[in-house]
């Protein structure tokens, strides 16, 4: 051991950046098409902020350790922390009967626990060659301790079309994905009705969370006589995302799975069961109840419309492996460039986001890191709509000169 450092700190930070100027004032909003056509008027702000809103405060306690071994051929950096958030500021979905869309306020208290470990290793190091390897592991978990006014849960985002929503729920991880599910028998088979359509629950169940269980990172670099090749990648898993794209592909019948739908003979939902008699509670494998047969566009619409509105169907695995960067560079020897007054000259090419591997259930529906919104209801909370742009993949080159 050639280096050891242990440190600890406690930090308390206040935040009110999400509260916009005049947010707590009663201001008029100039809408489009109200009261009629091109006639203009004012309406009450449909996204108000609580007049008594307070800044949220985050108190973080952290312990760090840094170790260097064998002249830093091996390095270990670790950090463990606990953050307590008081008076968390969030815009919650309001009841439509109130005439409001959302209401921003202090919704409750939350605790976040996390761990980060970074390992560095230089397996080979000679006069001309160096191999540098770094690996990292990080995990954090946020749990809601209490909510305002003694509530058990608060709806932060609701999407009736997909049958899903984002919630803050006491005792559960945050953000939490909830939605409707398919009704199933004791063996887990989906129950279909007399028309062959899948049945779904009338209440919400927990379908997942938007925070990964852990993130693994890896960076690798090789250097040989001025040539440097490097790669950076990561893998994250254990979380889910609501896919608006999958919903929009489902109801018109454009999913890959819909290729099995034969409109001439109808369609039987795979591994489904049907009740032997109404109210009997006894189910038998469905081998004869077709959802639609012949040229029946309404039957097809009914099937995919029913399927698309089940929240369980629209929540997908957000696991992703990404190669963040590949780079290759060459540094001209100083004995060559010093004659022209340069101290260094390096040429390089690079590719950013060249490869992405998504979960099997995510057939290109959405990139878990891309969003159609920068607001607090974007996919940072676990929702990805249909208007998102794909992540940018770039290829470039560089010339670096030092005089």
From TrEMBL:
Annotated GO CC locations: cell outer membrane
Signal peptide residues on this chain, from the entry's feature table: none
InterPro entries: Beta-barrel_TonB_sf, TonB-dep_rcpt-like
Membrane topology note: Multi-pass membrane protein
Subcellular location: Cell outer membrane
Chain segments carrying region Disordered: 366-387
Superkingdom, natural source: Bacteria
Keywords attached to this entry: Cell outer membrane, Membrane, Receptor, Transmembrane, Transmembrane beta strand, Transport
Entry's family note: Belongs to the TonB-dependent receptor family.
Name the record gives this protein: TonB dependent receptor
Organism encoding this protein: Flavobacterium xanthum
């Amino acid at each position: 051991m050639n280096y050891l450092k242990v440190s600890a700190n406690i930090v308390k930070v206040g935040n009110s950046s999400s509260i916009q100027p005049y947010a707590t004032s009663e201001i008029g909003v100039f809408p489009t098409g109200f009261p009629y056509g091109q006639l203009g008027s004012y309406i009450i702000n449909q996204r108000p902020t609580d007049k008594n809103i307070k800044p949220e405060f985050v108190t973080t306690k952290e312990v760090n350790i840094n170790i260097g071994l064998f002249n830093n051929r091996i390095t270990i950096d670790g950090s463990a922390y606990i953050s307590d958030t008081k008076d968390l500021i969030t815009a919650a979905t309001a009841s439509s009967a109130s005439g409001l869309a959302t209401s921003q306020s202090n919704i409750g208290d939350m605790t976040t626990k996390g761990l980060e470990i970074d390992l560095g290793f230089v397996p080979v190091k000679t006069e001309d060659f160096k191999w540098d390897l770094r690996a990292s592991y990080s995990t954090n978990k946020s749990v809601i301790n209490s909510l305002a006014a003694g509530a058990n849960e608060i709806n932060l985002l609701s999407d009736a079309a997909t049958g899903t929503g984002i919630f803050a729920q006491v005792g559960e991880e945050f953000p939490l994905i909830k939605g409707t599910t398919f009704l199933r028998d004791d063996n887990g088979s989906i129950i279909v009705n007399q028309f062959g359509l899948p049945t779904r629950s009338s209440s919400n169940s927990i379908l997942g969370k938007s925070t990964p269980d852990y993130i693994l990172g890896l960076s690798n670099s090789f250097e040989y006589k001025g040539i440097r090749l490097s790669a950076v990648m990561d893998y994250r898993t254990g979380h889910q995302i609501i896919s608006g794209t999958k919903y929009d592909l489902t109801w018109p019948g454009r999913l890959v799975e819909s290729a099995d739908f034969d409109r001439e003979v109808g369609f039987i939902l795979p591994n489904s069961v049907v009740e032997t008699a109404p109210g009997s509670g006894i189910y038998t494998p469905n081998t004869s109840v077709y959802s639609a047969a012949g040229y029946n566009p309404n039957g097809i619409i009914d099937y995919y419309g029913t399927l698309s509105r089940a929240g369980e169907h629209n929540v997908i695995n957000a696991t992703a492996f990404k190669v963040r960067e590949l780079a290759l560079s060459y540094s001209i020897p100083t004995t060559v460039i010093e004659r022209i007054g340069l101290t260094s000259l390096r040429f390089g090419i690079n590719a950013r986001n060249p490869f992405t591997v998504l979960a099997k259930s995510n057939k290109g529906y959405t990139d878990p890191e891309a969003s159609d919104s920068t607001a607090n209801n974007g996919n940072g909370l676990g929702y990805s709509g249909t208007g998102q742009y794909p992540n940018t993949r770039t290829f470039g080159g560089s010339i670096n000169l030092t005089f």
